[in-house]
Amino acid sequence: MGKKGIILSGMRPTGALHLGNYFGALENWVKLQDEYECYFFVADWHALTTGYEDTSQIKSNINDLVIDWLSAGLDPNKCIMFLQSSVRAHAELHLLFSMTTPLSWLTRCPTYKDQLTQMKDKNIATYGFLGYPCLQAADILIYKANTVPVGEDQVPHVELTREIARRFNFIYEEIFPEPQSLLTKAKVLPGLDGRKMSKSYGNTVALSDSPDEIAKKVKTMITDPARIKKDDPGNPEVCSVFAFHKVFNETTVCDIEQQCRGGCIGCVQCKKLLNEKVTAYMEPIYERRQSLVNKPEYIREVITEGNKKANEIAEKTLAEVKRAMKIDWE
Q1: Domain co-membership, 280 together with 302
Q2: Catalytic residue among 78, 122, 309, 322
Q3: Residue-range definition of the domain harbouring residue 220
Q4: CATH of the domain at 229
Q5: Average model confidence (pLDDT) for the chain?
Q6: If you average pLDDT over residues 35-64, what whole number do you get?
Q7: CB neighbours (10 Å) of residue 326?
Q8: Same domain for 46 and 103?
Q9: What is the C-alpha separation between 136 and 97, in angstroms, rounded?
């Protein structure tokens, strides 16, 4: 049975992946690799758009990111994993797209406006940050991907890629597909403190955490602040522990909710039950990760081979683009 289509997606190497990343994207990637021709890339150039002032951790983050991917179940025999900066055609297509993309398309991008406001402590009023949607379009279209797995908040990004493809096809020649968003229903987990799970908040459960580390973190999770005694009725809706139970303990979560509301189960016991579920779920990922940490040659081999495959496809597309634009001098 043939593949459904071509998928492209990536992650920036900005630190250890956590459960929010896993349930938000990675879990879905593992499923998609059996159904689609998948390209998954380490977006190290994209990491520079907001982190260009400190690049000291990028190399180690790249290595850790690939280990996390493999630990979670991505298979180099089923998908192509590669490093963005090792496929130079991304940069060249980005440059060519920047010649035809109206400035107004970039300035209206929701993420551009939001992050300028939210990241006032960083100087991101740069050409690279403004133009990153062009690079994103190049990432997708260089492989002629027709499907991009995203959450609802990222749909405008894919639409901009569609507009860039449509404009190029109109001006020059019909080369690029107009990729469709593949909306993924992700399981949402809060951080340990009830806020969004984020490395910047220090409230994550990392894929690299050991069973002991997980147990310590579960103990610190925020529960209903109004519940003082064990037999006080609880409100699960304001409890981070209950939010985790909805993901990790689906079969008995209704019973846990009733016991909490009736004051029949204390927070300590509730956390103990959760820790057992999270640890059991994470154990295979952790064990695979431990076996990969001491195999740097294998990690390099996976990326090197992925780079080679990605380059072959990307260079073919770039040659088509140059012919269409009449700049194929060589």
Answers
A1: no
A2: 122
A3: 209-290
A4: 1.10.240.10
A5: 93
A6: 95
A7: 8
A8: yes
A9: 10
Q: Is 150:184 a contact under the CB 8 Å cutoff?
A: yes
Residues 282 and 300 in one domain: no
Report how far Cα 210 is from the mean position of its chain's Cα atoms.
Answer: 22
Q: Is residue 42 part of a domain?
A: yes
3-state SS of 235-257? CHHHCHHHHHHHHHCCCCHHHHH
Q: What is the pLDDT of residue 1?
A: 53
Token pair recorded at residue 170: 């109109």
CATH code at 62?
Answer: 3.40.50.620
Task: Give the integer Cα–Cα distance in Å for 302 and 40.
Answer: 12
Contact 288, 70 (CB under 8 A): yes
Same domain, 88 and 127: yes
Instruction: Give the number of C-alpha atoms closer than 13 A to the C-alpha of residue 154, restricted to the C-beta side.
Output: 18
Do 104 and 154 share a domain, yes or no?
Answer: yes
Residue 122 lies in a domain: yes
In a domain, 195, yes or no: no
Does 122 qualify as catalytic in the annotation? Answer: yes
Residue 216 a catalytic site member: no
Specify whether 199 is catalytic.
yes
Amino acid at 284: P
Contact 260, 232 (CB under 8 A): no
Whether 183 and 313 map to the same domain: the answer is yes
3-state helix, strand, coil in the chain (%, to 5): 60, 10, 35
Q: Are residues 283 and 310 part of one domain?
A: no
Instruction: Please tell me the pTM assigned to this model.
Output: 0.93
Number of domains in the chain: 2
Contact 275, 248 (CB under 8 A): no
Select from 146, 114, 151, 130 the least CA-distant residue to 24: 151
In a domain, 61, yes or no: yes
Annotated active-site residue in 78, 187, 199, 246: 199
**Candidates 4, 31, 59, 196; catalytic one:** 196
Provide the sign of the torsion angle of the four alpha carbons 199, 61, 85, 144, taken in this order: negative
Q: What is the pLDDT at residue 138? A: 98
Residue 172's SS3 state is coil
